[in-house]
């Protein structure tokens, strides 16, 4: 995978945080002096390079300013436990002996995956973060998605996956973009959960046309047999990570392929969910 450069806005404090957290083996006047120097440098860099909130443009050293961070994450939205589609109260459907709520589509024709966690709907202003991550390599957005997905997971009663995998890009698309935005979320999410992340288990064997121009059935056909599995997933619970879930056809096809290869359970972790087709 290509290593690419990014501006200091993408990594608000990374360089200075490293200096600040220098792990020196023992405390001597020299190491104390080094710490004070690093701390002074951090303050200097912070003051010299003010950064902007990715959403509102206010000055902020973090990806989002405190106001946006408090306002936009974890919107209180009731979602289908299987596909994370937002539900209005009259849409509520419960299976017997299941306290989770589901949308009608998942009850009538369950997808191959078992559960989906989504942070918010794919709409303004958080869609900006997905665009920044996908097209402008703003990896801090991936870390922020991962941080909030981990918090959402901790609040859920879902079991911890055995391994976390990103939805893969085709080779051609990976070469063109230089990185997989889903991996930018998957890796920090796996680290936070204390499980392994593996980008090599699933490959995208077919370069599928852009999904957005197709209707729901065409999307299903479009992604059928688009994936191949190279690792041993038998009996495993996989956590599948993507930035945006639109119709769910890609994740359904991926979960179907994983289940055919013997996977026990598939839980999707998506940053943003498109409310309706
Ligand atoms: Zn802001
Ligand atoms: Zn559903």
What does the main sheet amount to?
5 strands, parallel
Q: Quote the distance from N terminus to C terminus.
A: 33 Å
Cα-atom Rg, whole angstroms?
Answer: 21 Å
CATH architectural designation of the largest domain: 3-Layer(aba) Sandwich
The unreliable regions are: 1-26
Q: Beta-strand percentage?
A: 5-15%
Please estimate the helix content. 25-40%
CATH topology of the largest domain: Rossmann fold
Strands of the biggest beta sheet: in what spatial order?
3-9-8-4-5
Q: Under the CATH scheme, which class of the largest domain?
A: Alpha Beta
Tally of structural domains:
2
Order of helices and strands, N to C? HHHEEHEHHEHHEEHEEHE
List the helices and strands and how they pair.
Elements: H1 14-20, H2 29-48, H3 66-72, E1 93-94, E2 101-102, H4 104-108, E3 115-121, H5 127-136, H6 139-155, E4 163-166, H7 171-177, H8 181-193, E5 196-197, E6 202-204, H9 216-223, E7 227-229, E8 237-245, H10 249-260, E9 265-273
Parallel strand pairs: 3-9, 4-5, 4-8, 8-9
Antiparallel strand pairs: 1-2, 6-7
Residues 53, 55-56, 58, 64-65, 67-68 line the site of one zinc ion.
């Amino acid at each position: 995978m290509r290593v690419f450069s990014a501006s200091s806005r993408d990594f608000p404090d990374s360089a200075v945080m490293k200096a600040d957290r220098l792990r020196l083996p023992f405390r001597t006047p020299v190491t104390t002096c080094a710490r004070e120097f690093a701390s002074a440098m951090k303050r200097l860099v912070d003051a010299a390079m003010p950064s902007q909130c990715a959403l509102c443009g206010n000055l902020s050293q973090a990806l989002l300013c405190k106001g946006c961070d408090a306002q936009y994450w974890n919107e209180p939205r009731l979602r289908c436990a299987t596909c994370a589609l937002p539900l209005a109260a009259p849409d509520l459907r419960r299976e017997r002996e299941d306290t989770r709520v589901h949308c009608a589509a998942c009850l009538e024709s369950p997808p191959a995956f078992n559960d989906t966690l989504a942070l918010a709907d794919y709409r303004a202003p958080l869609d900006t973060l997905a665009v920044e991550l996908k097209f402008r390599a703003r990896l801090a957005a991936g870390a922020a998605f991962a941080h909030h997905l981990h918090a959402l997971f901790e609040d859920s009663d879902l079991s911890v996956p055995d391994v976390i995998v990103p939805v893969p890009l085709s080779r051609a698309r990976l070469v063109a973009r230089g990185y997989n935005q889903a991996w930018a979320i998957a890796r920090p999410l796996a680290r936070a959960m204390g499980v392994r992340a593996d980008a090599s288990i699933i490959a995208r064997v077919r370069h599928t046309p852009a999904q957005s121009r197709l209707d729901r059935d065409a999307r299903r056909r479009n992604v059928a047999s688009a994936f191949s599995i190279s690792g041993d997933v038998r009996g495993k619970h996989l956590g599948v990570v993507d930035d945006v879930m639109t119709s769910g056809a890609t994740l359904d096809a991926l979960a179907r392929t994983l289940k055919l290869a013997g996977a026990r359970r598939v839980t999707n972790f998506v940053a943003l969910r498109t409310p309706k087709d």
